[in-house]
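Protein Entry — a single chain follows
Next Lines — sequence and tokenised fold
***
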Amino acid sequence: MILYPAIDLKDGQAVRLVHGDMERATVFNDDPAAQALSFVEAGCDWLHLVDLNGAFAGAPVNAAPVEAILKACKVPAQLGGGIRDMATIESWLDKGLARVILGTVAVENPELVREAARAFPGQVAVGIDARNGKVATKGWATETDVTATDLAKSFEDAGVAAIIYTDIMRDGAMGGPNVSSTADLARAVSIPVIASGGVSSLEDLAALRDTGVIEGAISGRALYDGAIDLTDAMKMLKG
């Protein structure tokens, strides 16, 4: 199972939110590229980046820090937030991003996901963010009636590289991930599923890994707070 250290970008800084609330942001580093480099030096194989302002604006806002991270770090990175058209997808991939994450458009314009997955095989992931099983969009501000499982199944034949499943009520709260619902989603589709939200200890990582169906896990606050030591986590996951 791959561990993805998370760098959430707000106003050019690396922050963490609680339950996706922009008003409840803790700044962890005002130099996101330095933060990313520290994760790479600790042994991570991937980076998970989120343009929080972009998710609300519907277009990239934190491009400069993302580009600085891509320049400084030699491991692949995936990015979500404000990526809602082919031009933006192409632009990010041209800049060296390994994978784009499409969230809001997966609900509002699923054909774009299909088109992008065809054009860029292996480089398009779908971000499914759910509150009580129902998908939320536009930086989690808009509730929908779509279930996470139905949305995931709708992309079964689209060729997407991964599904990143976030349980919003667990995110940033250090309360542990929703292992059962994430595993249920992973069993419902053949697309690799990456867990996000609430991963706050080595035990959480082990629980996700031991389901045998979850391909990866994203952790942010726990790495910043020291609840998870990244080097120890990498050793454990690589056995």
User: Anything to note?
Assistant: The first helix runs from residue 32 to 41. The CA atoms of residues 85 and 118 lie 14 Å apart.
